[in-house]
Amino acid sequence: MKRFAIGKFTLPVYSVLALCFMLIPIVYTIVFSFNNSHRSNTTWEGFTFDKWLGVCNRPDVCEALGNSLVIGAVSTLIATILGTALAIGLVRYRFRARALVNLALFLPMATPEVVLGAGLAGLFFNAGVGAGWVTIIIAHVMFCLSFVVVTVKARVQTLDPVLEEAGRDLYANPNQVFWKITFPLLLPGIVSAALLAFSLSFDDFIITYFNSGDVTTFPKYIYVAAARGVPAEANVIASGVFIAAILVVLITQIRGAVKRKRLLKSS
Amino acid sequence: MAFAAFGSAPATEHKSPVKSGRIVLALLMPGLIYLGLFFFTPLFSLIITSLETPAASGAIGAYDYGFAWQNYVTVLQSYFPQILRSFYYATVATLIALLISYPLAYFIGVKLRRFPLFQRLMLTLVIAPFFISFLLRTIAWKQIFADEGWIMQFVYNMHWMPTSEHFLGSDFAVIFGLTYNFIPFMTLPLYTTLERFDIRFLEAGADLYASPAKVFRKITLPLSMPGIISGTLLVFIPIAGDYVNASRDFLGSSKTSMIGTMVESDFLQNWDYPSASALSVMLMAVIVVLVSLYVRSAGTEDLL
Question: Each residue of B252-280: pLDDT tens digit?
Fold first, then answer.
């Protein structure tokens, strides 16, 4: 490894710089949530906590947030259940149509959002279904599903079938084996999958825009507001969601790393 | 495999028992039926809509079933600049994203392997942008690069650019925004590939007197190919269909309209469903070709 001495500092320094670059707009968004701005939030006008304390002084922003939270929660729940079942089926069982199923699951991830959005909107339009809550949730479950499968699948692959066999040997019925052994072991993967699904749903704009009708989600609110200036209250909500999500991720990642370190030490 | 990083899974894998039958059906069917109804049916419906003709009644937004193949010719002719521009932006942005992501993914996946805590922290920072509205992040860049912002003021004062020209609204600004927004989608699959990669290969190469450059070219690069390919797919495709970065209210202008811009305006503003659908079907066709090239070279197991 000493042969790579020239690159010893270049790579770490570069990596830190690259990550800092990635974080610039995040920091900008958070900083401007404290901006004492009046109409549009484009120039710095002094520090204030007012926007954080009175987010719902802008009822339209708050309503959009509420809609997004409900849509995110319902879509995440459905997508996580369907996706977890698919992931277990794909890893645990060999069957002939496997390649086809893999492809069918990959395609939605590889399809541009305009195509998904326009396709679904056309389908709903032809079927005479009005755009609204239901159509948004149907769309969100659809594009979250594949991401849930990928995430849970990685976890199922690490699961040792011997553990389940042991359970069966000890006369556990299939139900008990699933809920007492399989499910708890898969839980970290399922949680990360649900978190990913929720953040995809919460942040989706293009597909939602095609299928939302009169319902305004948080990203749709920002897109529409972008023409005349996004109020600082939107930054407050985005920053709040960001801080909450990053805390959850950090805690799970650190716990994972600590566990892994212990495993490395013991082996 | 691209998002396996989220599963926080160590690299060990176990052989699956060979089983089949009713359980598989019960596990797979609900999800597959859902995809059939709400992914494949819409695609099929797009193909049908793309061939429709204006309704005999002449009402705006009403169309009759038909086989108007000429819709495709019309769309190709009138939207040729947008189609070309979309693929040009996607190609350039994907290449830049790859160049930026590769060293970063290598550092996190290979160099930080012995420091799991740092590895996790850096990985969290890579995916951090996912947790804050991408529209707001793009607006942040817009304000950072605004003409009256300090960066552009500096550029103007140094006479690097005449004040009559603007960064916002240029091809460069849109490519910048696209690259920025999709870097994590490149870094993650690269990381998952590099994280599994056996360092002993590098040592072996060095022991056999290969120069670091040669080790990289002959060992590291070929072994990271799966990550490069799946990252390229995951970045190129969404960029080709994006229209937010190129939108006038974000980083673009009327001169940066892309395929997505035209689909959106045809569908939601002009109610020209056949044109919007024809354009979508063509975009989808290109993507199906790209994905099948990938499947041919790598199989379907590593897709997910």
Answer: 998 999 999 999 999 888 888 999 999 99
Q: Is residue B25 part of a domain?
A: no
Q: Which residue of A has its CA nearest to B286?
A: A111
- How many CB atoms are located within 10 Å of the residue A114 CB? 30
Q: How many domains does chain A have?
A: 1
Query: Greater confidence, B104 or A98?
Result: B104
The one-character DSSP state at A49 is S
Interaxial angle between packed helices B116-127 and A7-31, expressed in degrees from 0 to 180 and rounded to the nearest 10: 40
State the total domains in chain B.
1
> B6-51 pLDDT, tens per residue?
444 444 445 555 555 677 888 889 999 999 999 999 999 999 999 9
- Find the CATH number of the domain harbouring A76: 1.10.3720.10
- B37 in any annotated domain: no
Domain of residue B263, CATH code: 1.10.3720.10
Q: Rounded CA gap, B54 and B219, in Å? A: 58
Tokens representing B240?
């080709």
**A37 within a domain of the structure (yes/no):** no
DSSP state of A159: -
CB-CB under 8 Å, A94 with B238: no
| CB-CB under 8 Å, B139 with A257 | no
pLDDT single digits (tens) A30-55: 999 998 887 778 788 888 888 888 88
Residues 118-157 on A with a CB inside 8 Å of B are 118-123, 125-126, 138-139, 141-142, 145-147, 149-155, 157
CA distance A47 to chain B (A): 18
Contact status of B234 with chain A (Cβ, < 8 Å): yes
Q: If you average pLDDT over every residue of chain B, what do you get? A: 86
Residue B230 belongs to some domain of the structure: yes
Q: For residue A156, is it within any domain?
A: yes
Query: Looking at the domain assignment, is residue B137 inside a domain?
Result: yes
Among the partner residues B140, B263, B287, nearest to A111 by beta-carbon distance: B287
Domain with A87 in it: 59-230
Position B302 scores a pLDDT of 62
CB contact under 8 A, A149 and B27: no
Q: Do A22 and B13 touch (CB under 8 A)?
A: no
Angle at B129 between CA A198 and CA A228, to 5 degrees: 90
User: Range of B128's domain?
Assistant: 71-298
Residues in B closer than 8 angstroms to A125, CB to CB, are 273
Query: Does the distance separating the beta carbons of B244 and A205 come in below 8 Å?
Result: yes
- Under 8 Å CB pairs connecting chains A and B tally to 347
Give the separation between CA A111 and CA B96, rounded to whole angstroms.
Answer: 21
Q: For an interface test with B, give the residue of A23, A77, A115 to mutate (most B CBs within 10 A).
A: A115
Does the reported pTM lie above 0.90?
no
